[in-house]
Amino acid sequence: MINLELTQKLINDFNNNGFLILDKFLDTEYLDQLRSRFEPLFKGVFETGVEPDEWNWKFEKDPNDVTRQICNAWKADNLIRNFVCHEIVGKFCSQLMSWKGARLIQDNILWKPPGGKTLGYHQDAAYDDWIIPQTMVTCWMSLDNTSKSSGTLEFVKGSHLWELQPPKGEFHSPTDYKEQLNIFAEKNKKKIDIVYVEVPAGGVSFHHGYTWHGSGVNTTQEHRRAIVAHCVPADAKFHPTNEGGTAKIYKKYKQKNSDLLDEKFFPLLWKDKTN
Ligand SMILES: O=C(O)CCC(=O)C(=O)O
To answer: From the CB of 205, is ligand 1 less than 6 Å away?
Structure first.
């Protein structure tokens, strides 16, 4: 991770747009190593012996033209953990959201091969109604150069100020990946202004949990890979009753008689020690 400070201007940009895009974030000397972890992980070779929580694509079993995703690869791979659990990720997420600290609620590794299909437009915080407060910020770190034609991540500018809608429609490979966005915008009379995350390998974007985003087909001959940290406030807790979104997978980590997010499964990345 490069040593970078967030300026007030960058924080203001995030607050105005609902996202922030930076060309330099990951130390480029680690990119090859990080990319080399993808194939073993999708083949089910887990360095730590711990299986990730979600694993949507398996080598030689699933179609080649989809976006491959693993959730919580940090539990399986120490190098991925070093990056998605890095304190600078937690510090930036906290500063952008005006939080006193940040905790990892989930990671993703994403691999969109040449011809790889879409991911439907959605709002990340819509999936965590089992967390109080229901909020999120996402740090998306790119391991490859990205462009509109490689099916990069795209955001709707200012949509973090729209209300949250429960998850709807297909997430993986919908034919019309903007369908849910268009339905929401039409119903709520919102204007859609799309910005594509076009960064060199090692670049990053951060987005607010309410920001609408998705990605199109990779029409290039290049692979498009990213590692992603989804964070919540350091003192976020389990909702005592809600069971929607991704709760069906993550409620198993709730301890009896406690709403605390256990450090073993939801690690604290950074905490402000100044007050
Ligand atoms: O990389 C993509 O295509 C989508 C990523 C995404 O949805 C996210 O990081 O929240």
So the answer is: no
Our answer on whether the CB atom of 154 is closer than 6 Å to any ligand 1 atom is no
The atom of ligand 1 lying closest to the CA of 207 is 10
* Residue 11 confidence (pLDDT) above 80: yes
Whole-structure pTM value:
0.97
Residue 275 pLDDT level (bands cut at 50, 70, 90): low
Q: What domains does the chain contain, in order, with CATH numbers? A: 8-251 (2.60.120.620)
CA of 153 to the centre of ligand 1 (A): 6
- In DSSP notation, the chain reads -------HHHHHHHHHHSEEEES--S-GGGHHHHHHTHHHHHTT--TTSPPPSEE---TTTS-TTS-EEEE-GGGT-HHHHHHHT-HHHHHHHHHHHT-SEEEEEEEEEEEE-TT---EEEE-GGGG-TTEES---EEEEEESS---GGGT-EEEETTGGGSPP----S-SBS-SSTTHHHHHHHHHTT----EEE----TT-EEEEETT--EEE----SSS-EEEEEEEEEETT-EE-SS---TTHHHHGGGPPTT--B--TTTS-EEEE----
What pLDDT, in 10s, does the model give residues 171-213?
A: 999 999 999 999 999 999 999 999 999 999 999 999 999 999 9
Q: Which atom of ligand 1 is the closest one to the Cα of 224? A: 1
